[in-house]
Amino acid sequence: MPCPATLPILTTRIKIMSRPPQSQSFYGTPSGITSKIAPAPIIASRDPASSDTGYPLSQPWVNKSSSRIFFLASVSGGIANWKQMDDGTSDVNTLTGNSGVAVPVAGNINVLGGTNLTSAGASPTGDDLTLNMDAAITLATSVTAPLFDSAASMSILAAAGSGISIGSPTSVSVVANSVSVELNPSAPSVNRATNLAGGTVSTASVTDTLNLGSGGVSTNADSIRNVNINVGTVAVGQLNTNINSATVTSGTNLVSIQTGNRVAGTVTLNMCTGTGTKAVNVGNADGLTTLTLSGATNQAVGNITLVAAGAKLNRTSVASTTAAGANSVGTVTLVAGVATIATTSVTSSSIIKLDRQGVGLTGAAALGYLSKDNIVDGVSFDIRAVQPANAGAAQTTDVSVIAWEIVN
Fold first, then answer.
1. pLDDT attached to residue 98
2. Would you call the peptide bond into 388 cis, given omega within 30 degrees of 0 as the criterion?
3. Bridge-based pairing state of the strands 60-63 and 42-44
C-alpha cells in the first residue's frame, strides 16, 4: 500500500508523582505508601518527651506503666508536641496547686474542699463544679490583709464560755503592737447604731460585763492609757453622750465612775473643765435626787446658788454637846457663861459663827456678849458670854443655848 503522505502522531502524557515527605510516609519510609495507613504504636515505660521527634504525625505512644496514650501532633523547630489521650476527651493533663501537682487517675482529677470549703458537682450529671463556703467556718489565727468586707449585717458569735478578741496579741512589744481597731470608722449617710454587749440580761445569776481599757497601766512612767468617748469637734449640730440613760422601773441602777482605791499616786476626775460657758446638771427638777459629796475636802471655785424655793443646805452630822468630834457645826448650852468645844475641825485661822438659839434657864438674869476664845488647832475652842462692862469677865448667869459653825 502506498504510504500516506502523513502519519498521525500519538501523544502520551506521563504523570510523574512526587514523593511524599518523610514525615507523611509510613514509618518514614520514602515510598508510595502514605500516612493513610496508621503507624504502629510505640510501647514504652515512659511518657514521650519533646525530644522524641523521629516519628510521623499521629504516631501513637503507649506508656504501659501509667496506662496513658499519647499522639504526636506536630514537630516544629526540632521540638515534638505530644498530646495525651485518656478516658473521655479533655485538654487538662495536670492541676497545679499552691504546693504539689494533681495528675489524672483513670481520667479523673478530684477537686476537693478544704478548710471552710466544700466542692459540689452538678447532680446527677453536668459540667458545673461549685465551691461553697461552709455555714460554720473556722477562722484563721492571724491575717495580714483585710479578711472580710460585709455589705449587709454580720454577726460574730463566740461559743459559751469563750470570748472574742479584736487586736494584736499581748506577747509582742509596744512598738510592734501599734494596731488600730475601729468599729464603723466611716461617717454614715443614713441612721446607724453600733452596739456593744447588747441584748437584755434576763437569766438569773448571770452577770454581763463590758470592759473598756481594763488592762491597767504598768509601773513604767512612760506608759499611758487613754480611754476617749465622744471626743470629736462640734462645729454645728449636736454631739450627745449618754451614760446609763435607761428608765428604771424596778431593781437597781448604779453608775460608778472612778470608784477604785488609791494606794499611791494621784487620782483626778475632771468634768466640764474646759473654757467657755457650760452648764453641768446633777439631779432633776422634781427634787427627788440626792447628791452626796464624800470627799475630805470638797471645793467650789465658783458660786453655789440655791435656786428653788425652800432649797437649803442640810447637815446630817451636828454636834449637840461639847464633845463634837470632827463636826464643824453644833449646839451647846453654856455653863456659867462658858463652853469648851472639843473638835478636830477647828484651826487658828477658822471663822467661827456664834448664834444664840435661846436663853435656856437664864430667865430674867443678865445675858452676856458672845465671843470665841482659846483656839487650839485641831483640838478645841471656847465660847464665852462676857459681861457688857468687862469683856474679860464671863457673864456667869448666862446659860443660853448657843449654835456654832466653823468655816475653814
1. 81
2. no
3. parallel
Q: Is the four-CA dihedral 313, 316, 321, 324 of positive or negative sign?
A: negative
- Cell for 176? 510592734
For residue 367, the model assigns a pLDDT of 92
Residue 404 CB-density burial (10 A; 0-12 exposed, 13-18 middle, 19+ buried): buried
Each residue of 237-270: pLDDT tens digit?
A: 888 888 887 788 888 888 888 888 888 888 888 8
Q: What per-residue confidence (pLDDT) applies to 152?
A: 67
Which residues of the chain register pLDDT less than 50? 1, 22-35, 168, 170-177
Grid cell digits, residue 121: 458537682
Q: 372-380 long-range contacts, Cβ below 8 Å, gap at least 24?
A: 374/340, 375/346, 375/347, 375/348, 375/350, 376/346, 377/346, 377/347, 377/348, 378/344, 378/346, 378/347, 379/342, 379/344, 379/346, 380/340, 380/341, 380/342, 380/343, 380/346
Supply angle C-alpha 184, 154, 246, rounded to 5: 65
- The residue among 38, 35, 44, 100 whose CA lies nearest residue 69 is 44
User: Could you read off the pLDDT of 217-237 as tens digits, one per residue?
Assistant: 777 777 888 888 887 788 888
**C-alpha torsion 115→116→121→127, nearest 10:** -90
C-alpha cell at 398: 448666862
Q: Is the model's pTM score more than 0.85?
A: no
Q: Which residue has the cell 492541676?
A: 95
Question: Which grid coordinates are listed for 99?
Answer: 504546693
